[in-house]
Amino acid sequence: MRKAFLGALVAVMPLAAAAQVESYTIDPIHSFVNFTIDHLGFTTLHGRFDKSTGKATVDRAGRKGTVDLVIEAASISTGDNDKGSRPRSRDEHLRSADFFNVAEFPRISFKGNVKFSGDGANEVEGQVTLLGVTKPVVFKMDRWKCGVHPFSKKEMCGGYASGKIKRTDFGMKYGVPAIGDEISLMVGFEAYKD
Protein backbone atom coordinates (compact mmCIF):
# COMPACT_ATOMS: atom_id res chain seq x y z
CA MET A 1 0.00 0.00 0.00
CA ARG A 2 2.82 2.39 0.91
CA LYS A 3 4.61 1.68 -2.40
CA ALA A 4 1.42 2.42 -4.32
CA PHE A 5 1.00 5.72 -2.43
CA LEU A 6 4.63 6.77 -3.09
CA GLY A 7 4.27 5.82 -6.75
CA ALA A 8 1.16 7.98 -7.08
CA LEU A 9 2.89 10.87 -5.28
CA VAL A 10 5.90 10.72 -7.61
CA ALA A 11 3.58 10.65 -10.64
CA VAL A 12 1.71 13.77 -9.43
CA MET A 13 4.81 15.81 -8.43
CA PRO A 14 5.68 17.00 -11.98
CA LEU A 15 2.09 18.19 -12.41
CA ALA A 16 2.27 20.15 -9.15
CA ALA A 17 5.54 21.77 -10.23
CA ALA A 18 4.09 22.69 -13.63
CA ALA A 19 1.00 24.20 -11.98
CA GLN A 20 3.21 26.79 -10.21
CA VAL A 21 3.99 28.56 -13.49
CA GLU A 22 1.29 31.13 -14.28
CA SER A 23 0.83 32.58 -17.79
CA TYR A 24 -0.15 36.18 -18.47
CA THR A 25 -1.07 38.17 -21.58
CA ILE A 26 0.08 41.79 -21.83
CA ASP A 27 -2.83 44.24 -21.93
CA PRO A 28 -2.03 46.42 -24.99
CA ILE A 29 -4.40 49.18 -23.84
CA HIS A 30 -2.46 49.75 -20.60
CA SER A 31 1.10 48.81 -21.60
CA PHE A 32 3.54 51.15 -23.33
CA VAL A 33 7.24 51.45 -24.05
CA ASN A 34 8.28 55.07 -23.41
CA PHE A 35 11.65 56.61 -24.18
CA THR A 36 13.69 59.79 -23.80
CA ILE A 37 16.69 61.01 -25.77
CA ASP A 38 18.90 64.11 -25.66
CA HIS A 39 18.20 66.53 -28.53
CA LEU A 40 21.10 68.76 -29.55
CA GLY A 41 22.09 69.30 -25.93
CA PHE A 42 19.17 71.72 -25.54
CA THR A 43 16.33 69.49 -24.39
CA THR A 44 15.15 65.95 -23.81
CA LEU A 45 12.63 64.57 -26.28
CA HIS A 46 9.98 62.13 -25.06
CA GLY A 47 8.19 59.49 -27.07
CA ARG A 48 6.50 56.14 -26.92
CA PHE A 49 5.42 53.19 -28.99
CA ASP A 50 1.63 52.97 -29.04
CA LYS A 51 1.26 49.30 -30.04
CA SER A 52 2.77 46.23 -28.40
CA THR A 53 1.78 42.65 -27.62
CA GLY A 54 3.31 40.05 -25.39
CA LYS A 55 3.21 37.18 -22.96
CA ALA A 56 4.75 36.64 -19.54
CA THR A 57 5.10 33.82 -17.05
CA VAL A 58 5.50 33.96 -13.29
CA ASP A 59 6.74 31.10 -11.12
CA ARG A 60 6.18 32.42 -7.60
CA ALA A 61 7.57 29.35 -5.85
CA GLY A 62 10.64 29.30 -8.09
CA ARG A 63 10.94 33.10 -7.82
CA LYS A 64 11.40 33.64 -11.53
CA GLY A 65 9.54 34.55 -14.67
CA THR A 66 9.81 35.35 -18.37
CA VAL A 67 8.75 38.18 -20.67
CA ASP A 68 8.24 38.08 -24.44
CA LEU A 69 7.31 41.50 -25.87
CA VAL A 70 6.80 42.60 -29.49
CA ILE A 71 6.62 46.32 -30.32
CA GLU A 72 5.24 47.69 -33.59
CA ALA A 73 7.99 50.10 -34.68
CA ALA A 74 5.65 52.19 -36.88
CA SER A 75 3.57 53.05 -33.80
CA ILE A 76 6.30 55.45 -32.61
CA SER A 77 4.90 58.78 -31.43
CA THR A 78 6.78 61.87 -30.24
CA GLY A 79 3.91 64.34 -30.57
CA ASP A 80 4.99 65.50 -34.04
CA ASN A 81 3.06 63.58 -36.68
CA ASP A 82 1.71 66.58 -38.65
CA LYS A 83 4.29 67.74 -41.18
CA GLY A 84 2.54 70.99 -42.03
CA SER A 85 4.68 72.79 -44.66
CA ARG A 86 7.77 70.65 -43.90
CA PRO A 87 8.80 67.72 -46.13
CA ARG A 88 8.01 65.32 -43.25
CA SER A 89 7.15 65.27 -39.57
CA ARG A 90 9.57 64.09 -36.90
CA ASP A 91 7.57 60.87 -36.44
CA GLU A 92 7.77 60.20 -40.21
CA HIS A 93 11.53 60.78 -40.07
CA LEU A 94 11.85 58.36 -37.14
CA ARG A 95 10.04 55.69 -39.20
CA SER A 96 12.50 56.17 -42.09
CA ALA A 97 15.76 54.33 -42.81
CA ASP A 98 17.66 57.04 -40.89
CA PHE A 99 16.23 55.69 -37.63
CA PHE A 100 13.82 52.75 -37.13
CA ASN A 101 13.50 51.74 -40.82
CA VAL A 102 10.00 50.35 -40.21
CA ALA A 103 9.57 49.23 -43.83
CA GLU A 104 12.38 46.68 -43.44
CA PHE A 105 12.15 46.09 -39.67
CA PRO A 106 8.50 46.47 -38.65
CA ARG A 107 8.95 45.00 -35.18
CA ILE A 108 11.20 45.44 -32.16
CA SER A 109 11.30 42.48 -29.79
CA PHE A 110 12.41 41.79 -26.25
CA LYS A 111 12.80 38.42 -24.55
CA GLY A 112 13.90 38.34 -20.94
CA ASN A 113 14.04 36.56 -17.62
CA VAL A 114 12.53 38.12 -14.52
CA LYS A 115 14.55 37.96 -11.30
CA PHE A 116 12.91 38.20 -7.90
CA SER A 117 14.09 39.60 -4.58
CA GLY A 118 11.98 39.75 -1.44
CA ASP A 119 8.28 39.70 -2.32
CA GLY A 120 8.55 40.85 -5.91
CA ALA A 121 10.46 41.18 -9.13
CA ASN A 122 13.48 43.46 -9.07
CA GLU A 123 15.18 43.00 -12.46
CA VAL A 124 14.59 41.75 -16.00
CA GLU A 125 17.62 40.56 -17.97
CA GLY A 126 17.17 39.89 -21.64
CA GLN A 127 17.84 40.53 -25.30
CA VAL A 128 16.38 43.31 -27.42
CA THR A 129 16.27 42.98 -31.21
CA LEU A 130 16.20 46.28 -33.10
CA LEU A 131 17.04 46.80 -36.79
CA GLY A 132 17.90 43.10 -37.03
CA VAL A 133 20.58 43.35 -34.32
CA THR A 134 20.22 41.60 -30.95
CA LYS A 135 21.91 42.99 -27.84
CA PRO A 136 21.62 42.39 -24.09
CA VAL A 137 19.76 44.84 -21.87
CA VAL A 138 18.93 44.92 -18.17
CA PHE A 139 15.79 46.59 -16.83
CA LYS A 140 15.40 47.59 -13.20
CA MET A 141 11.91 46.79 -11.94
CA ASP A 142 10.85 50.06 -10.30
CA ARG A 143 7.37 48.75 -9.43
CA TRP A 144 5.85 45.26 -9.29
CA LYS A 145 2.42 44.15 -8.12
CA CYS A 146 0.20 41.13 -8.61
CA GLY A 147 -3.38 40.97 -7.45
CA VAL A 148 -7.01 41.28 -8.44
CA HIS A 149 -7.93 44.12 -10.81
CA PRO A 150 -10.33 46.40 -8.89
CA PHE A 151 -12.82 46.72 -11.79
CA SER A 152 -12.61 43.55 -13.90
CA LYS A 153 -12.00 41.34 -10.82
CA LYS A 154 -9.50 39.33 -12.91
CA GLU A 155 -6.06 38.38 -11.60
CA MET A 156 -3.25 40.42 -13.06
CA CYS A 157 0.34 41.57 -12.60
CA GLY A 158 1.74 44.95 -13.49
CA GLY A 159 4.73 47.15 -13.05
CA TYR A 160 7.17 49.71 -14.31
CA ALA A 161 10.69 48.94 -15.51
CA SER A 162 13.53 51.17 -16.68
CA GLY A 163 16.74 50.62 -18.62
CA LYS A 164 19.09 52.14 -21.19
CA ILE A 165 20.47 51.19 -24.60
CA LYS A 166 22.81 52.86 -27.09
CA ARG A 167 21.24 53.21 -30.49
CA THR A 168 24.59 53.00 -32.29
CA ASP A 169 24.93 49.44 -30.91
CA PHE A 170 22.07 48.57 -33.28
CA GLY A 171 23.45 50.50 -36.28
CA MET A 172 21.26 53.60 -35.77
CA LYS A 173 23.91 56.28 -36.30
CA TYR A 174 22.00 59.20 -37.83
CA GLY A 175 22.66 62.52 -36.06
CA VAL A 176 25.10 61.20 -33.43
CA PRO A 177 26.43 62.95 -31.36
CA ALA A 178 24.12 65.97 -31.79
CA ILE A 179 21.13 63.69 -31.28
CA GLY A 180 21.96 61.52 -28.28
CA ASP A 181 23.25 57.97 -28.55
CA GLU A 182 21.85 56.77 -25.21
CA ILE A 183 18.13 56.08 -25.06
CA SER A 184 16.40 55.78 -21.69
CA LEU A 185 13.56 53.26 -21.79
CA MET A 186 10.61 53.10 -19.40
CA VAL A 187 8.13 50.25 -19.76
CA GLY A 188 4.78 50.45 -17.97
CA PHE A 189 2.74 47.26 -18.23
CA GLU A 190 -0.31 45.37 -17.03
CA ALA A 191 -0.93 41.72 -17.86
CA TYR A 192 -3.97 39.53 -17.22
CA LYS A 193 -3.63 35.95 -16.05
CA ASP A 194 -4.60 33.50 -18.81
In short:
The chain is mainly beta and 194 residues long. Helices cover 12% and strands 54% of the residues. The chain has one domain (20-193): Lipid/polyisoprenoid-binding, YceI-like (Lipocalin, Beta Barrel), CATH 2.40.128.110.
Main traits of this protein?
elongated; mainly beta; 2 helices; Lipocalin; 194 residues
What can you tell me about this protein's structure?
- It is a single chain.
- The chain is mainly beta.
- It has one domain (20-193): Beta Barrel (Lipocalin), CATH 2.40.128.
- It has helices at 2-19, 90-95, and strands spanning 21-26, 32-39, 43-49, 52-59, 64-72, 76-77, 107-117, 120-130, 133-148, 155-166, 179-193.
- The protein has an 8-stranded antiparallel beta barrel.
- The longest helix has 18 residues, at 2-19.
- The mean pLDDT is 91.
